[in-house]
Amino acid sequence: MKQFACGDVVPGCRKTFTAPSEEEILGSVGRHALDDHGLAEVPPELVEQVRGRILTLA
Question: What is the C-alpha to C-alpha distance for residues 23 and 27, in angstroms, rounded to an integer?
Answer without folding.
Answer: 6
